[in-house]
Design brief:
The chain is built from eleven helices and 13 strands. It is of the alpha/beta class. The protein folds into two domains: 199 residues, Thiolase/Chalcone synthase (Peroxisomal Thiolase, Chain A, domain 1, 3-Layer(aba) Sandwich); 143 residues, Peroxisomal Thiolase, Chain A, domain 1 (3-Layer(aba) Sandwich). The strands form four sheets. It has a five-stranded mixed beta sheet with strand order 1-7-6-4-5, sandwiched between helices. Helix 4 crosses helix 5 and helix 8 runs parallel beside helix 9. The radius of gyration is 20 Å and the shape is globular.
Length: 351
């Protein structure tokens, strides 16, 4: 069965409150920016509904003149370090050894490395030589749900096996110092660094179990979100129409998925939503409020940590599992959006 045996969440090493970031920028980056643009950037930062953000780098290094090569070297270093640490945290919670894992899935979209980080983790932790590997890249914020969907597909065909899903993201390393566009400001205000891990398999304990999954494609919307590769690194692509496109497709994403499982919104008590940002979160919250449902855990993660791309949805699940008790039969719904454009759904039941 595809049961969640354990979860772990690891934010970036350096945490900064929003006022700290604004104060630093006024003394550094904004010196070379015209006053009107600087005021816009401050407004975006303060209005993001994010109180603090974590990074693998100190703030001075984020806003320094790093080359693409230097940025990517820092990304690789963070991938190895955080990937190992968060995987060990999850294994300890599951009371398992690295050699107990049969299949490792890794997700990331904020840099490049070949071999992918899973190869390094296999060596660093001396995992078995016959372990199967799947690196998932370019899925953006939907990578966490993608990894869970692929883990579920594997476990359906390989009962009794165990999967580790490791997500590591470092959006702060991709920051473009010379880019004064609204896209770059919104990205800097929204994204942060973090790593998460899920161990899946079978357990006699009551645990969230994947029952059904779905990937929904928004046709002709590849322009909405992604990265553009430039000489200075990965430049964010974040179209202002993302919230509106999501809103227009929303009923077609959730309602048919629930219907095919014989469920209504009232039957599903727990909503694990990837909080992409303030506008999308507000839209989803308004929609669910009509059914007396909420995304409080998702909003709390966004407020405390920011958007950590593919790692975020597991942060939300981890928080929910730590703060609530669940009875057998309880149902949950996971949802994340990503470039392509795609919406990915997962139905959970505590069994």
């Amino acid at each position: 069965m595809s049961k969640v045996i354990a979860t772990a969440a690891l934010p970036g090493e350096y945490r900064y409150e929003t006022p700290e970031i604004v104060d630093y920028l006024k003394r550094s980056w904004f010196v070379a920016v015209d006053p009107r643009t600087a005021r816009k950037a401050v407004t975006i930062l303060k209005g993001s509904n994010i109180d603090s953000r974590c990074s693998v780098l100190p703030i001075e290094q984020i806003f320094s003149d790093l080359s693409f090569e230097e940025k990517n070297d820092l990304y690789i270093e963070a991938m190895k370090k955080m990937g190992e640490k968060v995987l060990l945290l999850a294994l300890a919670k599951a009371d398992l050894k690295p050699t107990d894992i049969d299949y490792i899935i890794t997700t990331s979209c904020t840099g490049f490395m070949i071999p992918s980080v899973d190869a390094y983790l296999v060596n660093q932790l001396k995992m078995r030589g016959d372990i199967e590997r799947l690196p998932v890249t370019e899925m953006g914020c939907a990578g966490g749900t993608s990894g869970l969907i692929y883990a579920h597909q594997y476990l359906k065909g390989n009962p009794g096996k165990r999967v580790a899903l490791v997500s590591v993201e470092t959006p702060t390393i991709t920051f473009q110092k010379g880019d004064h566009s609204m896209e770059n400001f919104v990205s800097a205000a929204t994204f942060a660094d973090g790593a998460s891990c899920v161990i899946l398999g079978d357990t006699p304990q009551v645990a969230p179990t994947i029952i059904d999954t779905s990937m929904y494609h928004f046709p002709d919307n590849t322009h909405l979100m992604g990265y553009h590769l430039t000489n200075s690194g990965l430049k964010i692509v974040l179209d202002k129409d993302v919230p509106f496109e999501i809103q227009s497709h929303f009923p077609g994403i959730i309602e048919p998925f629930f219907k095919r499982n014989g469920l209504s919104f009232q039957d599903v008590a727990h909503y694990i939503f990837h909080p992409g940002g303030k506008k999308i979160s507000h839209m989803v919250e308004e929609y669910l409020t009509t059914y007396d449902r909420n995304i409080l855990d998702s909003k709390a993660i966004l407020r405390e940590y920011g958007n950590m791309s593919s790692a975020t949805v597991i942060f939300v699940l981890n928080r929910m599992l730590q703060q609530q008790e669940f009875q057998a039969g309880a149902k949950g719904y996971m949802l994340a959006f990503g470039p392509g454009f795609t919406a990915q759904s997962i139905l959970l039941e505590w069994r």
